[in-house]
Amino acid sequence: MTSRERVRKVLNHEEADRMPIDFGAMRSTGMTAVAYNNLKKYLGMDTSTTKIYDIWQQLAEPEPELIERFHGDVVQLHRLAPSFNIPINEWKPGTDVEGTPSLVAKTFNPVTNEKGDKLLFNAAGDVIAHLPAGGYYYDQVCHPLKDAECEKDIDERIDFSEITQEEAEWLHNEAKRLYETTDKAILAEFVGSAFYESGQYDFGYDVYYENLVLEKELVHHYNTRRLEMLKASARTYLDAVGDYIDVFHMGDDLGTQQAPQISVEMYREMIKPYHKELFSYIHKLRPDVKIFYHCCGSIYPFIPELIDAGIDILNPIQLTARNMDARKIKEEFGDRLSFWGGGCNMTTTGTNGSLEEIEAEVKELSGIFKKGGGYVFNQVHNIQNDVTPERTIAIYDSAYKYASYGQA
């Protein structure tokens, strides 16, 4: 059975020849460039070929030899400019945040200030993101709607343009290349922040929370404009990639470690109608493609709502968050929802546990989730800088060791 066949079978809630494994196939199942380069050094590989495709989170693109080494079954179809509008179709020599030689996007040109912070600017000359000296990630610092007072402000300050023809051609060519040169399932990156998170970024967190209560019409107008853009872009995207892709990724983080960020009632009023219309539209365009929804944190009360809205796959299953019990979630929702992630807790065991503890946890959690299909293995969110190569290897080798459906 090929990787593509394996993933398709499992996402149709059937058991395949073994549990599929995702080795870094999207922006919440990957590895930081530092962790990835440390792994490559440990394995005696050259780091200078590492591509840092996600500037925001400093994530590395997994290379084919490592995907094969760790039995990965999925590859990612990237957007042309996945972060800060910086395209990744051309590369140049650079470094990761710890100075290890790597490849960076050709037009990635941060400016270092007197404090040693690295700054990114937009075309208007505004600082849009910065990496603090000694930091690991670029933080967004520009919120164009922070003082927006009317719908006109939203219309004038936010670019609601759909996918360009240039990007559509990029998506077609990349999807075709991945389909023809690998036997992997293809996970297509669409939008990491559909409505809720994009509102937090554009308004700023504090203002957005206030507007959800006090300026609801502003939020509805913003979401309506986003919905129009996302539907048009989804059609262009899906027309461009044809039958090559298997999974279509979107996201909106609705939880914190301790609780949901908003009430279920507020979600139903302010966000769900837009989710439901977008997901329904995508399913009508491509009934065979599975909608992958990334949503961090304590989100148990939202799971039935998200199923009703139309998602097929939930990630990352943040098991250390409150009320996110693996067995309960699988038993309650596993007949209607596939799970992607949740195979090793990266805030605890995966980062600080012994190799034996990692193996035991991977065995237990994958044993819960994989029964009856509907599960692709991955750890809980990205592998961060402080995760040792030995632990990374233990996570994925354990997943493969216990990938058979005949094992507990």
Characterization of the model:
- This protein has helices at residues 3-11, 33-42, 64-69, 151-157, 165-181, 196-203, 205-214, 216-241, 264-270, 272-285, 303-309, 326-333, 349-352, 355-369, 389-401; strands at 52-54, 59-60, 74-77, 91-95, 101-105, 111-112, 118-121, 127-131, 139-140, 185-191, 247-251, 290-294, 313-315, 338-340, 375-376.
- The chain is 39% helix and 14% strand.
- The mean pLDDT is 97.
- With 408 residues, the chain is an alpha/beta fold.
- The strands form 4 sheets. It has a 7-stranded parallel β-sheet with strand order 3-10-11-12-13-14-15. A 4-stranded antiparallel β-sheet has the order 6-7-8-9, with no helix packed on it.
- Helix 8 runs parallel beside helix 10.
- The chain contains 15 helices and 15 strands.
- A hairpin with a 5-residue loop joins strand 6 (111-112) and strand 7.
Secondary structure layout:
Layout: H1 3-11, H2 33-42, E1 52-54, E2 59-60, H3 64-69, E3 74-77, E4 91-95, E5 101-105, E6 111-112, E7 118-121, E8 127-131, E9 139-140, H4 151-157, H5 165-181, E10 185-191, H6 196-203, H7 205-214, H8 216-241, E11 247-251, H9 264-270, H10 272-285, E12 290-294, H11 303-309, E13 313-315, H12 326-333, E14 338-340, H13 349-352, H14 355-369, E15 375-376, H15 389-401
Helix pairs in contact: 2-15, 5-8, 6-7, 8-10, 10-11, 14-15
